């Protein structure tokens, strides 16, 4: 809390703490279990404030540490159930001073920026609203994997994943210190269990799908895409309906996207900066079972049910680790019907 305003959860708008408190007590005549945590109480009231008009609080539950909140709302259309976790985590590896992108990441409401240090990282690394884990901090966490994780390696992110999970994360956003979203994550990632959307046609014979073609760039392909399939014609056939949200969601990156070395060597002019933009009007789509598409660690959201697939193998190169992760994870998703 800062003076009389609640700004830590929703910094782009200011709400009088007294007004939020009145909202809370007006709702409290419904069933509510509270921890007595004043900050948590304000946050719950603010969630109700942001949920819109015409909703009635049916049940509100706070876990004892004040981290996870479950709110059931009712409106004229029936029942809605919404879950919020204020301990969601950002993962980013940095070996330099805080970047402009890191500062942007640290200001995203509802997420915690977690920076995993390495031998080249200055122990004085600091950024407001971010948490930095030095090598000593990582060792003191007590994870056995600390001793099998090499230094000067991108796979030190694995320690960060474990730390976020241990501290109650429900979503982990995987990114790098040179990437930052230009719009709110809720605009292109789905945080609900189910939604109405597109699924790529499972009857198409192609086994590997090039997502860049769907987003308006059919002549480029992502890192990890099989070269013997780059000449295949993209089939714009989808099924529309209610679907379960994927446990791993990948977003495209404008400017210098994650394209492979062959494209850079053959298509990029020597002194020219790559500047590619995707079609922002193209809707998201889901990869069906028994199809695959490589995904990276630059703009990727993992939900709680997908945390088992976070592990980055440390026996391969920096440019391969997240790609191998994406392929073996998708193969296991088939077995789990995810």
UniProtKB/TrEMBL annotation:
In its UniProt entry, the species of origin is given as Brachionus plicatilis
What is the protein's name according to its record? Answer: Uncharacterized protein
Top-level taxonomy: Eukaryota, Metazoa, Spiralia, Gnathifera, Rotifera
UniProt-listed InterPro entries: STL-like
């Amino acid at each position: 809390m800062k003076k009389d305003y609640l700004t830590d959860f929703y910094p782009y708008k200011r709400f009088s703490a007294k007004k939020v408190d009145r909202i809370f007590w007006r709702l409290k005549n419904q069933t509510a279990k509270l921890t007595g945590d004043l900050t948590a109480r304000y946050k719950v009231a603010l969630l109700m404030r942001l949920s819109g008009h015409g909703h009635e609080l049916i049940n509100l539950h706070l876990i004892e540490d004040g981290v996870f909140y479950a709110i059931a709302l009712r409106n004229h259309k029936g029942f809605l159930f919404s879950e919020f976790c204020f301990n969601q985590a950002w993962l980013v590896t940095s070996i330099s001073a805080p970047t402009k992108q890191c500062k942007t990441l640290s200001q995203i409401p509802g997420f915690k920026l977690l920076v995993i240090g390495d031998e080249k990282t200055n122990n004085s690394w600091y950024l407001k609203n971010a948490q930095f884990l030095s090598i000593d901090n990582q060792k003191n966490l007590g994870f056995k994997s600390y001793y099998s994780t090499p230094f000067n390696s991108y796979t030190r992110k694995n320690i960060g994943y474990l730390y976020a999970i241990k501290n109650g994360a429900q979503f982990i956003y995987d990114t790098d210190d040179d990437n930052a979203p230009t719009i709110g994550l809720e605009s292109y990632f789905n945080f609900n269990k189910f939604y109405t959307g597109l699924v790529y046609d499972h009857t198409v014979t192609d086994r590997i799908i090039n997502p860049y073609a769907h987003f308006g760039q059919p002549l480029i392909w992502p890192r990890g895409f099989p070269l013997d399939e780059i000449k295949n014609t993209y089939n714009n056939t989808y099924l529309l309906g209610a679907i379960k949200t994927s446990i791993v969601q990948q977003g495209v990156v404008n400017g210098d996207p994650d394209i492979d070395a062959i494209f850079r060597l053959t298509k990029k002019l020597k002194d020219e900066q790559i500047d590619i933009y995707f079609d922002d009007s193209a809707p998201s789509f889901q990869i069906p079972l028994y199809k695959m598409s490589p995904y990276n660690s630059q703009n990727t959201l993992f939900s709680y049910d997908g945390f088992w697939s976070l592990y980055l193998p440390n026996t391969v190169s920096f440019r391969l680790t997240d790609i191998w992760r994406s392929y073996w994870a998708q193969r296991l998703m088939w077995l789990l019907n995810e």
